[in-house]
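ok so for the tutorial part 2 we go from a plain amino acid sequence to predicted structure tokens. step 1 is just haveing the sequence, like this:
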Amino acid sequence: MRTHEAIDYMSYRVAGASVTATPLGVFPTKPSALAEMFTGSPVLVGAVHLPALPGSPQYTGQPVAEIARFAVEESRAYIDNGFDGVIVENHGDIPFLKPGQHGYETAASMGVVTAAVVAEIGGRVGVSVLSNGGECAVAAAWSAGAGFVRVNQWANAYVANEGFIEGQAAATTRFRHRIGAGPVRVFADVHVKHGAHAIVADRTLAEQTEDAEFFDADVLIATGSRTGDAASADEVAVIRENTVLPVIIGSGITAQNVIPLLAECDGAIVASSVKDNGRWWGRVAGEKVRAVARAVGK
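step 2 — the prediction. this is what the tokens look like for a chain of 298 residues:
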């Protein structure tokens, strides 16, 4: 099994200097992004699904300061009940824009809201701009002091609800470098939900896993077919076996399935199952968060 904890390193010398090489992996070895940001394992991250932001069809004029207070309340419900961090997501901005179409208002709103969350719970916070808005997410995360972003399609391409979606690795990493946001880590999905994978149907899941690692992702995410659907244990295992990066699950975690699923990976992003109505638009229910945290010994 190719895990970031179990790599046997080799040393050799070049021009009189000691250099470390790894026999596994398709990108130069780097420290675990999860270990840098969180203590303990497995890592549990709660998704804060924001209401509609300025510029989106469902926005009704709610001040961004009120949305920020909502995000802080949701974040506290996660952290106070045993979770390790949160990820702030513009899930209310349905229908989602494609990468490159997000306006200044989205980056600004996400930055303000995320900064309020960081001020409350510290830097163990991520940003996700739907759909696949890597550059917009990095801008918001860096301005807010957040530690990571989630980018759904990092390498290759697929057909999503928004249309044709291409991988954002090249543009996002260059933008991150240009604004000096190197510390912002990238959590990248391997087999993206809410879409069809016919374009890469001739590439195995193992190959797609290596593609995401090769394009400099920091953490890989396994998901179900749509928001709230559980990832397949077999799919999680294949991803884990074909990367040296940390692997987490990005959807479908419940208090009932968390133990067998986390046996194959390093953590999970959790949301729908811990909402009061069991849906993404509900409010975070503290007792449901505690049930998941207790199940993994937190």
